[in-house]
C-alpha cells in the first residue's frame, strides 16, 4: 500500500529537523509531525470515531485533534452542535478544515419511529439538525426506531416505521442527507422496536430509497442475536455504516468474543467502502487504542 | 442520553471488575479440562474404530455420540468398547433418547427409553446423557412448555440418579430448527435453574448460541455453575475456531476464569487433516486458558 502525501511530508519534515532546517520552511505548520491522516493513507478506508466515546471534558477542537492524532479521517456527533455559539462555530469549523476531518454522521434526536403522533417532534428535530449538519458537511443522520407502541402488531409496527422513514427521506432530499436506521439490543433498551439488523434490513428494503440504509452496529447485534457475518453478507447492499466494539464491555476489538479480523475481511471482500466507525470505550490510552484498532482493521482488510 | 450514560457506567464497572478478575486468574494455572470430539462430525463413512483412532491420535480423551449406539449389536459394543479401552478414551456423552421433553404425554416412553439406555451407558462407561427439548406444541403457552420441559428433565434425572448419570439439556438455534422449543442457553439455564437438581445441567454449544443469540461470555459468566459441557465450532460454517466471527481465545479464557473443569468437545467440520485440526484446536484452547 502506498503512503499518502502527508506521510511524505512528515518524513520530509523529520529529515529537515535532522538537518536543523525546519525554520527555513515556514509553510509547514508547527504540528506537521502529526500531519492529518488521509483516506489514502488508511488503505483507502474511511475510519471515524463516535465522539461520545472519548474521555469526558474535551472540547470539539480537542476531540478532532485526538481523532486526527489516532489517524482517523472522520468523526460522528450527536446534536451538540445545535448549541454552539457563533464563536464556537468559527473555531470548530476552522479546526475541522485544518485537520481535514469529515463529520460523517450526526444524531438529530430520538423519537419512536413507529408512533405517528411523534411526527411533529421528529420534524422539529430534523429542522433543528439540518442547518448545522450542512455547515459541518455531514450527510448522514442516525436514527434508532426507539420505543415500541403498545398494542401494535409487528406488521403494523414495520409499516409505521417504513412510513416514517419515507417521510424523513423526503424531508431530507433537497439537502441530500441520508438516514441510517440503527437497531439497539434489548439488553440495552428493553422497549426497543427494532432490536436486530434482520428487521432493519426488512424495513429499509420496504422503504426502497437509496438514501435510507441500516447502521450495522456489531456490538448491539452481537449482544442481541449473533450470526454477524452471514447477515452482513446477505444484506451488504443495505449497509450504510458500521459501528465497532467488542462484547462484553464495549471495549476495543480483541477484548471480547467477536473476531473482528474476520469481520473486517468480510467487509473488504464485499467491497464495503463507507465509514467504519469505532464506538468503544478504550481500555488504556485513547489515542493509542484507537490507532491500534484502526491499524488492525487495515491489516485485516488487506488480507481480505 | 440515558443509553450513553448507561453504557459508560457499564464500561467503567466492567473495566474495574475485569482488573480484579485478572489478578485472581493469574493464580489459575493449567485447568483440569478434558477434550473430546463429537463423533458424527467426523463423517459416518469411516468406522467407529477409525474415528476413535483419529481422536486418540489428536491427543483427546473423549468421544461423544448422539444415537450411534442405538444401532450397535452386542458384538459391536464389545468390539468398540475394547477399542475405546485400548486407546484410553471415554465416551463422555450420549443421547439416551430422542423423545421430546415438551410433551407431558410422552413421559412413559421417555422413562422407558432412558431406563433402557442406562445399562448400555454403564457398559460403555458413559456418565452424561444429553437431550434436546423437542418441538413446540401448538396450543401450549411458553410457560406451560417450559414447565413441561422442567418436569421432563426431572423425570430423566430421577431415572438416572442411582446410576450417577448426569442429564444435560442442549438448546438448538432457531436457524437450524425453527420448531425446537429451547433455542438459547439463556432459556436453557432458566429452565434448569427452576428444576434445581444437581443432576441436571446445560450443554452450552457456543456455535448454536452464536447463531441464534450472541452475548456468549456474559451468559457464560452468569451461569457457569450450570454448565455441564461445552461444544465448540465457529460461525458461519461450523468450522474450527479462527475461521469465523467468534473470538474463542477470550471464550476459553473466560472458561478458565470461571474454573470450568469438564469436557470441551469439538464439534466442527474439518477443512483439511482431522488430526492436525483437532490438535491445533486443543493447543489453542489450552494456551488461551493458561493465559487467563
Automatic annotation (TrEMBL), chain B:
Keyword Acyltransferase (UniProt): no
Domain Xylose isomerase-like TIM barrel, first and last residues per copy: 53-269
Location of the active site: 170 (proton donor/acceptor), 267 (proton donor/acceptor)
Entry keywords, A to Z: Isomerase, Pyruvate
Keyword presence, Isomerase: yes
One example GO MF annotation: isomerase activity
Domain of life: Bacteria
InterPro entries per the UniProt record, alphabetical: HyI-like, Sugar_Epim/Isomerase, Xyl_isomerase-like_sf, Xyl_isomerase-like_TIM-brl
Pfam entry (one): AP_endonuc_2
Similarity comment: Belongs to the hyi family.
Classification via PANTHER family: ISOMERASE (PTHR43489)
Name used for this protein in its record: Hydroxypyruvate isomerase
Organism phylogeny: Bacteria, Pseudomonadati, Acidobacteriota, Terriglobia, Terriglobales
Amino acid at each position: 500500500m502506498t503512503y499518502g502525501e502527508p506521510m511524505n511530508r512528515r518524513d520530509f519534515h523529520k529529515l529537515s529537523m535532522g538537518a536543523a532546517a525546519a525554520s527555513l520552511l515556514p509553510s509547514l505548520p508547527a504540528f506537521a509531525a502529526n500531519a492529518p491522516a488521509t483516506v489514502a493513507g488508511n488503505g483507502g478506508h474511511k475510519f471515524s470515531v463516535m465522539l461520545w466515546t472519548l474521555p469526558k471534558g474535551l472540547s470539539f477542537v480537542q476531540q478532532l485533534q485526538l481523532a486526527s492524532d489516532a489517524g482517523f479521517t472522520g468523526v460522528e456527533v450527536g446534536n451538540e452542535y445545535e448549541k454552539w455559539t457563533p464563536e464556537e462555530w468559527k473555531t470548530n469549523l476552522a479546526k475541522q478544515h485544518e485537520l481535514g476531518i469529515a463529520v460523517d454522521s450526526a444524531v438529530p434526536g430520538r423519537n419512536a419511529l413507529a408512533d405517528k403522533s411523534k411526527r411533529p417532534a421528529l420534524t422539529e428535530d430534523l429542522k433543528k439538525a439540518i442547518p448545522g449538519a450542512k455547515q459541518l458537511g455531514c450527510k448522514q443522520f442516525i436514527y434508532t426506531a426507539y420505543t415500541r407502541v403498545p398494542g401494535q402488531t409487528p406488521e403494523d409496527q414495520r409499516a409505521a416505521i417504513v412510513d416514517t422513514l419515507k417521510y424523513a427521506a423526503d424531508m431530507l432530499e433537497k439537502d441530500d442527507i441520508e438516514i441510517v436506521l440503527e437497531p439497539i439490543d434489548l439488553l440495552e433498551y428493553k422497549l426497543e422496536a427494532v432490536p436486530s439488523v434482520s428487521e432493519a434490513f426488512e424495513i429499509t428494503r420496504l422503504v426502497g430509497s437509496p438514501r435510507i440504509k441500516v447502521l450495522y452496529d456489531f456490538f448491539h447485534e452481537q449482544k442481541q442475536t449473533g450470526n454477524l457475518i452471514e447477515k452482513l453478507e446477505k444484506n451488504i447492499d443495505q449497509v450504510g455504516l458500521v459501528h465497532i466494539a467488542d462484547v462484553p464491555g464495549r471495549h476495543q476489538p480483541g477484548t471480547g468474543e467477536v473476531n473482528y479480523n474476520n469481520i473486517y475481511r468480510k467487509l473488504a471482500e464485499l467491497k464495503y467502502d463507507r465509514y467504519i466507525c469505532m464506538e468503544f470505550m478504550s481500555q488504556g490510552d485513547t489515542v493509542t487504542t484507537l490507532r491500534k484498532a484502526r491499524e488492525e482493521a487495515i491489516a485485516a482488510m488487506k488480507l481480505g | 442520553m440515558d443509553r450513553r450514560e448507561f453504557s459508560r457506567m457499564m464500561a467503567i464497572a466492567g473495566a474495574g471488575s475485569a482488573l480484579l478478575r485478572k489478578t485472581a486468574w493469574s493464580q489459575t494455572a493449567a485447568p483440569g479440562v478434558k477434550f473430546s470430539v463429537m463423533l458424527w462430525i467426523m463423517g459416518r463413512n469411516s468406522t467407529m474404530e477409525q474415528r476413535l483412532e483419529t481422536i486418540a491420535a489428536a491427543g483427546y480423551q473423549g468421544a461423544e455420540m448422539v444415537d450411534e449406539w442405538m444401532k450397535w449389536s452386542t458384538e459391536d459394543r464389545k468390539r468398540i468398547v475394547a477399542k475405546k479401552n485400548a486407546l484410553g478414551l471415554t465416551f463422555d456423552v450420549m443421547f439416551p433418547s430422542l423423545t421430546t421433553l415438551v410433551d407431558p404425554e410422552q413421559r412413559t416412553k421417555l422413562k422407558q427409553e432412558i431406563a433402557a439406555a442406562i445399562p448400555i451407558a454403564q457398559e460403555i462407561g458413559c456418565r452424561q446423557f444429553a437431550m434436546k427439548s423437542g418441538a413446540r406444541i401448538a396450543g401450549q403457552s411458553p410457560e406451560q412448555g417450559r414447565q413441561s420441559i422442567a418436569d421432563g428433565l426431572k423425570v430423566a434425572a430421577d431415572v438416572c440418579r442411582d446410576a450417577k448419570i448426569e442429564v444435560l439439556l442442549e438448546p438448538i438455534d432457531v436457524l437450524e430448527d425453527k420448531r425446537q422449543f429451547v433455542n438459547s442457553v439463556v432459556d436453557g439455564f432458566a429452565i434448569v435453574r427452576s428444576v434445581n437438581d444437581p443432576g441436571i445441567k446445560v450443554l452450552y454449544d457456543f456455535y448454536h448460541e452464536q447463531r441464534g443469540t450472541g452475548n456468549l461470555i456474559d451468559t457464560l459468566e452468569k451461569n457457569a455453575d450450570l454448565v455441564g459441557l461445552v461444544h465448540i465450532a465457529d460461525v458461519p460454517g461450523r468450522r474450527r475456531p479462527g475461521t469465523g466471527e467468534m473470538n474463542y481465545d477470550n471464550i476459553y479464557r473466560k472458561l478458565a476464569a470461571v474454573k470450568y473443569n469438564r469436557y470441551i468437545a469439538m464439534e466442527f467440520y474439518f477443512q483439511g487433516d482431522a488430526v492436525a485440526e483437532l490438535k491445533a484446536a486443543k493447543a489453542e484452547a489450552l494456551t488461551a486458558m493458561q493465559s487467563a
